[in-house]
Design a protein that fits this description.
The protein is of the alpha+beta class and about 425 residues long. The chain has two domains: about 240 residues, 3-Layer(aba) Sandwich (Alkaline Phosphatase, subunit A), CATH 3.40.720; about 170 residues, no CATH class. It is about 35% helix and about 20% strand. The chain has 15 helices and 17 strands. The strands form four sheets. It has a seven-stranded mixed sheet with strand order 2-17-14-1-13-11-12, with helices on both faces. Helix 5 packs across helix 10 and helix 12 runs antiparallel to helix 13. The longest helix is centred in the last third of the chain and has 22 residues. The chain starts with a strand and ends with a helix.
Length: about 425
């Protein structure tokens, strides 16, 4: 059985953009190394969550073969697990954004800060916020953080809404939970609400935490210094995807009968990989794209010597999409081709049975600046396939493998090649 490399380029899919000659960033990008691989390639064009615009947790789970509607208990579990917070059954774990609110209305759901600023606010919040429960707050990258409230004698519930505009929590049979990108028009910031009666106390606790954290942040040195410099002010915490139970993903090594390794730098993706039983590389996101891609490429090539399958994640395409920077998006795809794909085309033995898969967890519109519910482009390179044309959304839509209807079908199909 050959080696498999799965590349998930976060938010890579997009819509045609007039300024790019009505092409998507993926179609517009110059990608000669991918083009060379198309001599043995097939495409897929599956949906992720049907009519719902997925978050990254649902997308990554689906790409790995896990149905999020069957396993997801809320993104917060994976996020906090990946941050090293070790959530336990009954604890409440949630994803947090530092945002800015003025006069009760949203200014930004993302206030980007340096690692030093984030760590300073982490210390302030952990030491000065007072709520009637034990908690741990830990920062991640840029504007992200995780919150774990320890259950103890208090019964916590996942049946609470998000206070981050644009992400709506949806509940399914058996307590399964997902949030999906819903967009928003009303800028009024809303409090967290109980979706079921059992969530009343949890909603009150989370709202108190948000209020207390805002008070502490506004009194911090970070806030005062940023105010002096007239920078964005992180005066509010947006909380979403609260979870209280382990999703219990089946071990991916047993699922496919192959040993898996993950080269991922973001907490969410680390958490999913850990929950799936993968060996996870000890790396973090590098601030410079070239450094990040080079470091991840080295890790993938090294892992291929000892593992059967390697999953690598690239975040930057999604980040620039949310900022509307479509020129940067296609430039990142070109860098992926130049650094990651170039090395892998030499390290993998496609003619001997190895397989390369390149796809995304969801599509993110650079013009709408949010996730959308369109199908995702998938490239599968394997010696069993013949030549194909330029890899992009249009080509995938026009000519794709019929058996792969949903993203959850990708890895079972690839594993049988």
């Amino acid at each position: 059985m050959g080696k498999i490399v799965l590349i998930i380029v976060d938010g890579m899919g997009d819509l045609p953009i007039k300024m790019l000659n009505n092409k998507t960033p993926l179609e517009y990008a110059y990608k000669p190394n991918i083009t060379m691989l198309l001599r043995h390639a097939e495409y897929a064009y599956p949906s992720v969550l049907g009519k719902l615009a997925p978050q990254s947790d649902a997308g990554v789970m689906s790409d790995l073969g896990y149905d999020p509607l069957k396993y997801s208990t809320g993104r917060g579990w994976f996020e906090c697990l990946g941050l090293g917070m070790e959530p336990r059954e009954g604890d409440l774990s949630a994803r947090v954004n530092f945002g800015e609110v003025n006069n009760g209305k949203l200014s930004s759901v993302r206030v980007y800060m340096s690692k030093e600023e984030l760590r300073s606010l982490e210390d302030e919040i952990n030491s000065k916020v007072k709520i009637p429960a034990d908690f741990e707050f830990r920062v991640g990258e840029d504007y992200r953080a995780g919150l774990v409230i320890r259950g103890g004698k208090t019964r916590l519930s996942q049946y609470v809404s998000n206070n981050e505009p644009g992400y709506t929590a949806k509940f399914y049979q058996g307590g399964k939970k997902l949030s999906f990108a819903s967009g928003f028009k009303d800028l009024k910031v809303k409090k967290i609400k109980a979706v079921r009666k059992e969530g009343d106390d949890t909603a009150k606790l989370l709202n108190l935490f948000v209020k207390e954290a805002s008070r502490v942040i506004k009194g911090s040195g970070v806030y005062k210094e940023r105010a002096k410099k007239k920078q964005q002010l992180p005066n509010y915490l947006f909380i979403r995807d609260a979870a209280v139970s382990d999703p219990k993903l089946p071990d991916i090594n047993r699922l496919y009968g192959r040993r898996w390794y993950a080269v991922v730098g973001m907490p969410l993706e680390k958490g999913i990989a850990m929950s799936a039983g993968m060996k996870v590389a000890d790396i973090h996101e590098e601030p410079l794209l070239i450094d990040d891609l080079s470091k991840k490429t080295d890790a993938v090539v090294s892992a291929l010597r000892s593992f059967d399958c390697v999953y690598v994640h690239v975040k930057q395409t999604d980040s620039v999409s949310h900022l509307g920077k479509y020129t940067e998006k296609y430039a990142i795809i070109e860098a992926i081709d130049r650094i990651l794909i170039s090395r892998l085309s030499k390290s993998l033995e496609i003619d001997s049975g190895d397989t390369l898969v390149m796809t995304c967890d969801h599509s993110t519109s650079s013009e709408l600046r949010r996730h959308i519910n369109s199908n995702i482009p998938v490239l599968i390179v394997n010696r069993k396939f013949g030549r194909n044309n330029d890899f992009g959304e249009s080509a995938c839509k026009k000519n794709h493998i019929k058996q792969i209807k949903k993203a959850t079908d990708i890895m079972p199909f690839v594993n049988k090649l």
